[in-house]
Amino acid sequence: MSRIEPVNHQGAEGETKELLDAIQHKLGVVPNFLRIFAHSPKALAAFLGLFENIGKGVLDQKTGERIALAVAEKNGCQYCVSAHTAIARGAGLDDNEIENARNGHSIDPKAHAAVKLATALNEKRGDISTVEFAQAKAAGLSDAEIVEIITHVGLNFMTNVLGKSTQVTIDFPQVRLLSNSQQAA
Questions:
Q1: Is the Cβ–Cβ distance between 89 and 98 less than 8 Å?
Q2: Is-contact 123 70, C-beta < 8 A?
Q3: How many CB atoms lie under 10 A from the CB of residue 70?
Q4: pLDDT digit string, tens, across residues 149-180
Q5: In this structure, are residues 72 and 172 in contact, taking their beta carbons and an 8 Å threshold?
Q6: Among 74, 108, 151, 154, which lies 20 to 30 A Cα-Cα from 58?
Q7: Is the CB of residue 104 less than 8 Å from the CB of residue 153?
Q8: How is the chain split into domains, by residue range?
Q9: Distances (CA, A) of 11 to 14, 20, 42, 70, 135
Q10: How far apart are alpha carbons 164 and 179 in whole angstroms?
C-alpha cells in the first residue's frame, strides 16, 4: 500500500488537473507514480519536462529503456522495473534484451557501452574513473550521448527514490526484482 495516496484525477483542480489531463490524453492512462508526483504540480511539471525533452535527444528510446531497466534493477525499485519492462516491450525490446539490460548488458555494442556507463554512474553516484569514461568514449559514445546517459541516470534515480520511498502501488504487470539487486527496505 502506498505511503502517499495517489491524487484522484477526477477530483484534481487547476494546474494539477491540467497536467493529469495532458498525461491521460497522451498515454491513455495516468500511472500511479505520476499521480504521486501530482501532489506537487511543480514537481510533476519538472519531471514531465525533463522526461519529454530527454526523449527527444540523441539516444534512441530502446537505449533509454535499457538504462531505465539497469538503474531500476540496481536500485531495487520494483515499480520502475515493472513499468520499464512494459515500456521496453512497447519500444521493441525482446525478453532476452530486457533481461540483459536489467543485468547491465546489451547485445548491441553501443547500447552495451551506454548501459555499462549508466550502471557505473548509478553505482558510484557519478564518481566514475578516468578509465570508465575513456571506455565509453572508445566505444563510440559522443559527448552528447554521454551527457544524455547522465541525464537518464539522474531522472531514473529520482523515479526510483519516489517509487521506493512512497511504496507506490504497482499498476503495471508486476516483474520481480533479480536476486542481484538491492532489496527495498
A1: yes
A2: no
A3: 28
A4: 999 999 999 999 999 999 999 999 999 999 75
A5: no
A6: 74
A7: no
A8: 9-54, 61-166
A9: 10, 11, 18, 36, 51
A10: 17
